[in-house]
Amino acid sequence: MATVVGVLLIVLIVIGVPLKYFAAEGTEPQQIGEFITTYLGTAHGWLYMIFLVMAAILARTARWSIPFTILTLLCGTIPLVSFWAERNATRRTREIMAAEPAPV
Predict the structure, then answer these.
(1) Which of 9, 4, 7 is nearest to 77 (CA)?
(2) Longest dimension (CA), the chain
(3) Dihedral, CA atoms, 46, 51, 54, 58, nearest 10 degrees?
(4) Where does residue 100 rank: exposed (0-12), middle (13-18), buried (19+ CB within 10 A)?
(5) Which tens digits make up the pLDDT trace of 9-63?
(6) Separation between Cα atoms, residue 10 and residue 13, nearest integer Å
(7) What residue spans of the chain are helical by DSSP H?
(8) pTM score, two decimals?
(9) Burial 58-84 (b: 16+ CB within 10 A, else e)
């Protein structure tokens, strides 16, 4: 989920916003930027909300600390940092799950 949200945020910030605001008004690049910011921006917003819920559920299940949970949730708002946060969260969760005894 963090990967999808991160990719959408990068496309939105690197492509959509510059085209929307820096291309000449009424040109095709400006219209593409408008489309990207409108539709990808909306999709990113909804998917980010889903990411927050799923990460909170995972945090509770894996018994993450409060600071680690908050850091992971906030990292989804910064381009490229969400990839690091997802890798870090995956590693920590695997370590926690490996340390617990298997259910009988």
Answers:
(1) 9
(2) 65
(3) -170
(4) exposed
(5) 899 999 999 999 999 999 999 999 999 999 999 999 999 999 899 989 999 988 8
(6) 5
(7) 2-11, 17-22, 28-35, 41-62, 66-75, 81-99
(8) 0.78
(9) bbeebebeeeebeebbebbeeeebbee
What are the structure tokens assigned to 92, written together?
């920590």
Structure tokens, 11: 């496309």
Distance CA 11, CA 26 (A): 21
Residue located via tokens 């909300």: 49
Tokens representing 56 are 């909170």
Domains of the chain, by residue range, sit at 2-99
Q: For tokens 């917003």, name the residue.
A: 45
Q: Which two tokens stand for residue 67?
A: 């600071």
Are 59 and 43 a contacting pair, CB within 8 Å?
Answer: no
